Amino acid sequence: MASLLKASSNVFLSEKLPFLSRSKTRQGVVPKKVTFRSAPVTLSLSTSTGTIEHDPISNSPDIAIPIMVNGCAGKMGKSVIQAADSAGLHVVPVSFDAEKNSGQTVELCGKKILVHGPSDRERILASVFQEYPNLIVVDYTVPAAVNDNAELYGKVGVPFVMGTTGGDRDQLYKTVEESKVYAVISPQMGKQVVAFLAAMEIMAEQFPGAFSGYSLQVMESHQAGKLDTSGTAKAIISCFQKLGVSFDMDQIQMIRDPKQQVEMVGVPEEHLSGHAFHLYHLTSPDQTVSFEFQHNVCGRSIYAEGTVDAVLFLAKKVKLKADKRIYNMIDVLREGNMR
Q1: Residue range 66-189+301-335 in CATH 3.40.50.2300
Q2: Could you list the active site residues?
């Protein structure tokens, strides 16, 4: 934990970090020359997309695992298909998506995947599950479909990985628990980010009040299409609150303007449509001690690769006839490297 959460106690005067001055934080002002990259950081989780590469697993028994990627027309769905294909999994040529995409064919990695709308989903899924008894469903659809989809998977009895955020989460867990199916459910599929979150939770649990009196400034930047506040940022802030920091969620600085993201945050232009930059800055009451935590994600490969690991994890649980229950990415991490 010490190596993961190693933080600097160097003195950073507020005038050296103008974007973190309290007056400007209240007004939501972000100065022109500040970037996530140039600010001193001691913890950074950065990744970028490109060609998703994995070691060949042609001799692995997992190569025959069939997966059905629902939401394959979306950016995350496509990223998962690329990661799964690279890992040697078999992507079945069927997918569910919104009615507007029904009838479309998504061509990716040399595969043609027929997209079906919401109607007649149960019959189609049951047929696919009968053809592929070892099927694992991956869900990257939309928040509005989360609960109905989970109910469908439970009714058919197919194991699934749910990476879609939103929906009624309490109802989601209730539905899956009652259906007694294998599932991995996590709104954050990036294993490294999950590990960081877990370490923060351990620190908060074991050292409550360690940062009492410290002030906190939080800035998060995501693609313009993300209208809500980052759930990861909220989880990290919750840990800081347990550590004694007073901070309201509405104080989070959300950056969604592409121009600001390039000029002030330092997001590469090619990743404006898909990124997650987070910065947490803590300052002591007398302004003599400063801690910073930063994790920057460009693209979607970190989530796609984590999803593939979740699929391999779940397939293993099914094969070993383990408990049919809801697992999460912490469980996947504890299992170790799946590939």
Answers
A1: no
A2: 222, 226
